[in-house]
Design goal:
176 residues, alpha+beta, eight-stranded antiparallel beta sheet, six-stranded antiparallel beta sheet, 14 strands, 24% helix
């Protein structure tokens, strides 16, 4: 009987510890925050290379979102690049860069850790390319007709979801 009480007590303590750990981890990953300009300046690259060509970052058209804090923080950085130095076929594909320091989902599709090029299409898709130019993801984009001031690049947290905008088109980003 004494063993049974000890087992029940141990089970209750472990359940409490597991619940507390779950709540702590949930809050780390469930609270995305858009980085402000001072923090953004520390994480945005000055240029980006894609398909063997290098282009400067348009620093005024960059954004980043962070889930959590400290060593457990997860980060996605996006930005426009000046493609005037790119060849015409590369310019037609790319608007900018997409950097994820951990696996994420974009528009419901899985994307691994890495640096990528991206482009939103006229037919409502977000395409993501590896730095060699190979398309690795195409996700449907949603048009937001209610957004007051569309910008070339914007990350916004709306009703708990992280939206990556180009103009009025956006795709939802989540950590995995």
């Amino acid at each position: 009987m004494l063993r049974l009480k000890a087992l029940i007590r141990w089970t209750m303590v472990m359940s409490f510890v597991a619940s507390a750990a779950f709540v702590a981890l949930s809050s780390v990953f469930a609270t995305p925050a858009v980085l402000e300009s001072a923090a953004l300046a520390h994480v945005v690259p000055t240029s980006f290379c894609c398909e063997g060509q290098r282009a400067p970052t348009q620093t005024s058209n960059t954004a980043a979102v962070q889930w959590g804090a400290g060593k457990d923080a997860r980060l996605v950085i996006v930005g426009m690049v000046d493609t005037s130095g790119y060849s015409s076929d590369v310019r037609a594909k790319y608007q900018g860069f997409f950097i994820a320091d951990s696996p994420v989902s974009v528009g419901g599709k899985e994307l691994g850790t890495g640096a990528y090029g991206f482009g939103f299409t006229e037919d409502g898709h977000l395409n993501i390319f590896d730095i060699g130019g190979r398309q690795i993801l195409s996700a449907p984009a949603t048009k937001d007709t209610k957004i007051q001031r569309p910008r070339p690049i914007l990350i916004r947290v709306d009703s708990g979801e992280v939206r990556f905008y180009s103009g009025r088109d956006y795709a939802v980003i989540n950590t995995r």
